[in-house]
Design a protein that fits this description.
By secondary structure, the chain is of the alpha/beta class. The protein is built from 7 helices and 5 strands. The N and C termini lie far apart (about 55 Å). Bound molecules: flavin mononucleotide (FMN).
Length: about 230
């Protein structure tokens, strides 16, 4: 199988999508007889190559982050570039891996329906969509916290290499949290928020020299000289 893999994160190789996608691809390559090419949609000048890759593939997997409850612009632009292939004989089967900052999969259900319908309109067999929340900051977590997720993603890739299908049960397991329980919600809104602010957002703002202006309200009180 010639697999076309796309990373739809504007952060390219540095992003979480690429990180998860690579674990999936490692799993695929553990079964013999496959090759893959990985394209980063952030390299927008290569759009023609992205389409060529799609037309020559036996299967396609596209990983990207949730952006404002939908997709990054580069992913939308990629979909639009495929329009001339709508309904073409022999379009490859397609599957998706979406990951997000918020922990609940429910945020991604609308997008999942969109992708299923898009696949149908393109004339691609729809393989399914992995939805995984709470991925922002994942790579800063200790290995024992993320080991389970990464090995499941790898197992999904291995199964895909064996059968050409994305295992539904594994997809369900990877997207572990449809909604937060009331107790977790309470924790997230109180201690969790405070910890994220101290450990993450405040640090980011300091690194970017924005901390002193964190309470600025530019629409209410425009800064001097605006
Ligand atoms: C512009 C922007 C919009 C985002 N919108 C959402 C969102 O609507 N819901 C969400 O849960 N996470 C959102 N996120 C968080 C990303 O989905 C999350 O950080 C993801 O892991 C980034 O993946 P990447 O490193 O592959 O780009 C957003 C991030 C950015 C930069």
């Amino acid at each position: 199988m010639r697999l076309a893999a796309y990373n739809g994160s504007p952060k390219g190789e540095r992003g979480n999508s690429n990180f998860l996608l690579r674990h999936f691809l490692d799993g695929v390559m553990e079964t013999p007889g496959h090759s893959y090419e990985l394209a980063h949609l952030s390299k927008v000048k290569e759009q023609e190559r992205f389409v060529e890759l799609f037309t020559g593939a036996d299967a396609v997997i596209l990983a990207f982050p949730l952006y404002t409850d939908m997709m990054p612009g580069i992913v939308k632009a990629f979909f639009e570039s495929l329009e001339p292939l709508c309904g073409r004989e022999g379009n490859p089967p397609i599957g998706f891996i979406i990951q997000s900052g918020f922990p609940e999969s429910v945020h991604m259900r609308g997008l999942e329906s969109y992708l299923e319908q898009l696949s149908r309109r393109l004339g691609c067999r729809y393989l399914g969509t992995v939805l995984r929340g709470g991925v922002e900051g994942m790579r800063a977590q200790p290995a024992f916290v993320t080991r389970g997720l990464l090995s499941s993603i790898r197992e999904l890739g291995r199964g895909f290499g064996r059968t050409g299908e994305l295992d539904r049960e594994l997809i369900r397991r990877i997207g572990n949290r449809e909604r937060l329980s009331p107790l977790r919600l309470l924790f997230t809104r109180t201690i969790g928020n405070w910890m994220a602010k101290k450990a993450f957002w405040d640090r980011r703002m300091k690194e970017n020299y924005a901390y002193e202006r964190r309470l600025a309200q530019p629409y209410v009180e425009p800064p001097e000289g605006w």
